[in-house]
Design goal:
With 102 residues, the protein is mostly helical. It has six helices and no strands. The chain folds into two domains: 56 residues, 434 Repressor (Amino-terminal Domain); 43 residues.
Length: 102
């Protein structure tokens, strides 16, 4: 996510480092998934890229749509693969159209 935000902002890791005071090697480790930043750190980095984090609800046991899960499990492998591919394309479309925070 950080890599995407930084690239959308047109920043290098070194430029993001200068803007935030976070060492460039730390930014690299975060982007590669070697370390997990704190929420505060990630928020600071993403804000420097002109974006912001938004809280997302985490589904609980009672929030799952078991009907959809059952339908997916009943699908044959090719149909399930096609569904997953279409969902991936939709997620990609959403990510490409995400707007930076003004």
């Amino acid at each position: 996510m950080l890599n995407m935000a930084r690239r959308r902002a047109g920043l290098t890791q070194r430029e993001l480092s200068r803007l935030t005071g976070v060492p460039q090697p730390s930014i690299s480790r975060i982007e590669r998934g070697v370390v997990s930043p704190t929420v505060d750190m990630l928020e600071r980095l993403v804000r420097a890229c002109g974006m912001e984090l938004e809280p997302v609800g985490v589904p609980g046991e009672n929030d799952l749509d078991w009907t959809l899960i059952d339908e997916l499990l009943e699908m044959r492998t090719p149909a399930r693969a096609a569904y997953v591919a279409a969902t991936g394309r939709e997620i990609g479309r959403i990510m490409r159209t995400a707007r930076p925070v003004a």
